[in-house]
């Protein structure tokens, strides 16, 4: 029987994928492992300077498949998807927030603010070491968030 791997599924897959991505001139943006209906999906989001093309996705898929087969970090059946994080990409890691300071973002909260607002848009203006971040809204209001209170934080292309 194989020894149980240490760490979450996404951490294990990230650790396996990062050296392969680097060889291909890519970075791992994010790794998710989610159940949708009866099916599980392992999604590896990749990026690179100048953007990702379909060939980049195919190349990493071909590189990671044999590694996932031999290491077998996931006991159940799943579908592997390798793709770009897209224009409206989710910011999930500290380096994402650092890389997109001064960028427009949409923040969706788990619980509404005191004024009932559950979603707001603004410019990401600061990020602290502990992961808290600040957004300045269209009304020139600065709002500070903790990552724990956010359902999601996404870049937005169409911010005015």
Describe the structure.
The protein is of the alpha+beta class and 160 residues long. The protein folds into two domains: 75 residues, 2-Layer Sandwich (GMP Synthetase, Chain A, domain 3); 62 residues, SH3 type barrels. Helices cover 24% and strands 34% of the residues. The strands form two sheets. A five-stranded antiparallel beta sheet has the order 7-6-5-4-8. α1 packs across α2. It is globular. The model has no long low-confidence stretch (mean pLDDT 91). Pfam families: RimP_N (PF02576). One of its GO terms (biological process) is translation. Required for maturation of 30S ribosomal subunits. Belongs to the RimP family.
Short description:
This protein has helices at 9-23, 54-71, 94-99, and strands spanning 27-36, 39-47, 79-83, 104-109, 119-127, 133-137, 142-145, 150-155. The chain is α+β, with helices and mostly antiparallel strands and 160 residues long.
């Amino acid at each position: 029987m194989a020894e149980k791997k240490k760490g979450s599924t996404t951490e294990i897959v990230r650790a396996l994928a990062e050296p392969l991505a680097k060889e291909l001139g890519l970075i791992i943006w994010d790794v998710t492992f989610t159940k949708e209906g009866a099916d599980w999906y392992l999604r590896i989001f990749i990026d690179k300077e100048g953007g990702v093309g379909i060939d980049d996705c195919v190349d990493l898929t071909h590189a990671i498949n044999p590694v996932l087969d031999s290491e077998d970090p996931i006991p159940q059946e799943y579908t592997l998807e390798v793709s770009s994080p897209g224009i409206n990409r989710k910011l999930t890691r500290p380096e994402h927030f650092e890389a997109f300071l001064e960028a427009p973002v949409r923040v969706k909260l788990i619980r509404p603010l005191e004024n009932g607002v559950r979603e707001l848009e603004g410019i990401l203006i600061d990020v602290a070491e502990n992961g808290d971040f600040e957004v300045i809204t269209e009304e020139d209001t600065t709002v500070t968030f903790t990552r724990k209170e956010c359902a999601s934080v996404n870049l937005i292309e169409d911010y005015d």
